[in-house]
Amino acid sequence: PAAPSPAPAAVAAAAPQVEHVSGGGAFDFDELDDSDPVEKAAQASNGKIQTESGAAAPVDKHWSLPEESLKTMPIHVAVARPRKLADVVDKVVPGEFWGMECLPCETFPFSPEMLQEWGPVWLTKAMHTTGVLPKDNEVLRFNRFDVKAADVTKEDAENAKWGGAGIKILMSVTYKNSSGDPPKGMFVKIPHPLISGNERTKNSGSGQDWSETLWYNIFGGRFGVPPFRTPRSIYSEMSRQTTNFIHIIELIPYGQEGFDTVGPGEFFPAPEKYRDWSLPGHGVDLYYAHTKTLAHFFGWHTNTRKTNDQMERIFMDAGTAEWCKRKFAETEAVGPYNSPARDKHWLKSLSDDPEAKFVMDSLAAQPSTYLAFLQLGREFIELTKHVFPQDLVTKSYLDKVFGEAREMQMYHQEMKYHTKSIPEYYAIEHPNAQVDNAFYWRDEAGAAQCGLLDWGGVYAGSMPNCIGNGWIGSEAPMMDEHEGKLIQLFVDEFAKVTGLRLDKEDLHMHVKIAQGLVMAGCCCNTQRIKTTVDWKKVKSRKDKAVNDNFLGRCYFVQMELWLTMWKKRSPYLAFQKWRKRMNLPVRLPPNGA
To answer: pTM above the 0.90 mark?
Structure first.
């Protein structure tokens, strides 16, 4: 949770078009047109965006970067991953984005102590380098320096609010003057130290911090802004050689009172991960606002790739980009979206396309791996059975859930490959699009609106995967009632932006399939908390030992929410529909696997 945004009065829906900022100079959300371009165009034509033929047409919302700027960025410069993280994490080396361009700012701090020691002099140079602060202004002193989530392995209610991907620092500063209208509040993200129990090794090995560095340096304001609200970057830098990084972005002025008291033009408090139970209506207003913004995010990329391939060049390697281009063209030539002709062609490709097996192996492991993960989850539930609602952990119910989940894993590769092969579902994906990785406000009419943040791990994926993973933290009573309605909202909003109307039932099926596939990984996650919590003393997920321990809460609550999902929104039903439609043979897991 956390990151920038405009002041409440300036927060509305979206900017009308990407506006390039000359020379990478200073930029300001307050200068943007606050109206939503989709809604504005619709209002101008009595609720419909018309072409000459009278058909609905997409709003022109796309993005491009000056080619000369793209070529100078270290996007695909090969950097060997460190063989042993402990040997490099303490090294101070130049960053890859800004260290090459500005000698006074060639290194960057990556701990709270370093940032405090280097102080206003370093921050001034950093902001001069990125153009956020005019040369005639400077940072004089740090006023606020509030460190959060320094140790996510401990039971600490305050730390548990701030996520597990790094240390967060909430800052305010004093400037020499007001030149350039500089940001007064800052949100800083830096890596955790390399200690047992946190996720530094996992995060540094995944490459997620580099993709976040790419996002902030390219989409954080230097070259304009996307047509949805997202953090304004102040300074973002990384060294892949050491895996150290620093992201400095504007601080969102989150509301400090309860969610029930947010009025027009005011921000909501920051929602916490896997605590939807504490939100009014289990966060239903936030889910609708979030779904609408996701549709605009995906629509923006869909429109962009009609005009250029720059996002693919930024977030994909050349080989993968070429395969997608070739595969999508082949698929589109066979027949229209969601047609029997495409289904038959895809099934035939499993045996006829020599690349199919290679691609499936690159997308997912063999079924035996996921079956082993599920077994770990079942064992964890047996260990902690007394903590769950008892109707979720009867032997008959667990046998049903895990039996069906095991069957799904036998088709893990095929399901991922199928979704990945559908051009209409392809998208640059926010990999952790749960409702807490966003910020919210009420517009002047009182409706909840949403901006996206936390771009670690952004990559080329699929819309159903993003939506499905984003909703696994939802509470069953809310999502049981609203899942279908949220899918319909997404379809409607995506059509407004792109002119393409997705099939609601097909999209919903692929969302559920994505949820069924990620369950195995969540089962594996339980091993990280198996011994870090004294489970014998825990009575429910709301106990302090779980609720105030970030990793403990995430990895335990995931399991409880999976079991509740299976009651009325089982991914297995979507899987059965998919397997029969694709005419695949029944493939049962081995006994005892």
So the answer is: no
